[in-house]
Amino acid sequence: MSFLKNLSWRYATKKFDGRAVSASDLDSIVEAIHLAPSASGAQPYHVIVASGELKNQLIQSSKQIGKIDASHLFVFCTRTDYPDRAEKQIALVAEIQGTTIEALAGLRTTVDRATLVEPSALRAWAARQTYIALGFALAACAELGVDAAPMEGFSPAEFHSILGLPEYIQPVVIMAVGYRDPADPAQPSMRKKVRFPKEDLFDFRAE
Ligand SMILES: Cc1cc2nc3c(=O)[nH]c(=O)nc-3n(C[C@H](O)[C@H](O)[C@H](O)COP(=O)(O)O)c2cc1C
Known about the structure:
The chain has helices at about 1-10, 25-35, 50-60, 85-95, 105-115, 120-145, 155-165, 200; strands at about 45-50, 70-80, 145-150, 170-180. It has about 210 residues and is α+β, with helices and mostly antiparallel strands. It has a single domain (about 1-190), classed as 3-Layer(aba) Sandwich (NADH Oxidase), CATH 3.40.109.10.
């Protein structure tokens, strides 16, 4: 199955060769993030796709990232502007699916249950949804033959300031994309991937 082959091909690339990812591949990655599922369909995230000088400034702001010659930097942020966002979501569902806001009382209850919690729990919930979007982006990159490095080792506060984001939008994880340096010894064809054995991760049960 080519999907699994592509997942074996991918690795968290740190050595890029400086080539730019095409606009159409970027569109496909964005589309995968857009189609990612989220609890209650709430999509409590915002993704900035930085390139050029802004990308360089972001990379240089965080010593942990090191020198990477990526084409673009995806900055995955949580958003916690509830209950405003829930109202927008309900109106959007009504508009797209041709129903009334009143008929969506069930959705309102679900979204309210998920989001009307204390701020730290809301941020944690939003982060969980955001990481699903990151997973879809990483899988899309693998399918497209685009190399990608997910990273939590960066300075969210620096990124927040450089990007001039409001309080309710907070960077949580980033993904650098580009093309691997063909001589990078860390790539899976030169260095074996390490994963815990399946028995360690899975437990098939029938009762
Ligand atoms: C959410 C997340 C955060 C990560 N953060 C970092 C990071 O800050 N720095 C880093 O060098 N690698 C980071 N990685 C890469 C992992 O170390 C890497 O994915 C893991 O070792 C598996 O290797 P592979 O992706 O090459 O198969 C991160 C990966 C994920 C999924």
